[in-house]
Amino acid sequence: MSRSRASFGIALCILGSVLACAASISVADSPVADKPKIAAPAYHLSGPYTHENLAIYLIHGEDRVKDKNYLTLPEALAQKKVIVHETKNVNELSIENVSKEEVFVQAGDIVKGGQQDRVIAHDLIVPGQSGEMPIASFCVEAGRWTQRGAENVYCFEVSLNQAPTNGLKIALRKSKQQQEVWKNVAHAQKQLEMNLGQPVQAAASASSLELTLENKKLGQTTDAYLKKLASITDGKNDVIGYAVAINGKITNADIYISHGLFQKVWPALLKGSAVEAIAEMQKDKKFTVPTSEAILGFLADAERGKATSQDITKRVRLIQHETEKNILFETQDISAKNMPAVRRSLISK
């Protein structure tokens, strides 16, 4: 795409006059017996680092790829290097990288505005000067299908939030059903309201997960977790992921291709974990924090599950392992040597 066309696309989006149109993408599950199996890297842990009912374990390991610097979706949107276009299709948006830098989009990233707020369904690597690419999404705001306030209805604004609960993550990545997504958004709102002692739904759009995550009271409560835990990665240049336990139960883990990428997404991941901990708070309940051995067992369990493969784009392959208790989503960069996992996301059912 030429520089003049890129500039023209940005200008149209800013003026709110872009009509986006995205081609559909077909993704089929297939066994991975014919795919090269990449050995999982070795990890070691530190922690637990705790606050209230939340325990964080840092996952240490070597960078799988050296000198690789992805932009994240929030970074790219804030720097106006990416446009996420409204297509008027609830479950598919289009994304356009107008810079020369590669952008890593995470499943669970929220984008704000458009006809309604969305959450991204798959991890995606968006190459520089990409042109418009389809990107699967789900609505996290039932009921609105019009402009909200002064927001741009044709493209989306940056959000610093991630889908915060295991139920929502499973609805996005395993169930892949819009009704299940709405159900889990509503459940999270109900749990947060109960534990905070006041409504968390916004007058501008009661069903919006994004506006709930911007709630003042929730923000104040979340900040107590962040002040205690945000700095635990400081000075630890080999941290490439983290694992989470809430109320003594292991819930999820995320592991990245490099320390640099993990450090960029760490604030949003930690905030999401804090929000889930608040939603799951059980006052006066006593629990035992899991051991490091239990965390390592959780990481290993999903590897044993039956695997299926999806080619999301020509660049990205998703390998999914599932056992009775856990699911592992592994996002591979097909174009790179040995197809390293850019992200390994583990979720307890």
- Counted by DSSP, the helix tally is 8
* Overall helicity: 25-40%
- Which band does the percent of strand residues land in? 25-35%
N/C terminus separation: 43 Å
Mean pLDDT: 89
> Would you list the SSEs in sequence order as H and E?
HEEEEHEEEEEEEEHHHHEEHHEEEE
Within the largest sheet, what's the order of strands? 1-15-16-17-18-14-13-3-2
Alpha-carbon Rg, integer: 20 Å
Oligomer: single chain
Question: How many strand segments?
Answer: 18
Low-confidence stretches: 1-40
Based on Cα principal axes, name the global outline.
globular
> Could you describe the largest sheet, including whether it forms a barrel?
9 strands, antiparallel
Which structural class fits the helix and strand makeup? alpha+beta
3D structure, described in words:
This protein has helices at 3-15, 73-78, 166-175, 178-196, 209-213, 216-229, 259-279, 292-301; strands spanning 30-31, 44-51, 54-60, 71-72, 82-89, 92-97, 103-105, 110-113, 118-120, 124-126, 131-139, 156-157, 239-246, 249-256, 306-311, 316-322, 326-333, 341-348. By secondary structure, the chain is of the alpha+beta class. Strands 1-15-16-17-18-14-13-3-2 form a nine-stranded antiparallel sheet, sandwiched between helices. Strands 5-6-11-9-8-12 form a six-stranded antiparallel sheet. The chain has a three-stranded mixed sheet with strand order 4-7-10. Strand 13 and strand 14 form a beta hairpin. Helix 3 (166-175) packs antiparallel against helix 4, helix 4 (178-196) crosses helix 7 (259-279) and helix 6 (216-229) packs across helix 7. It is globular and about 50 Å long. The model is unreliable at 1-40 (pLDDT under 50).
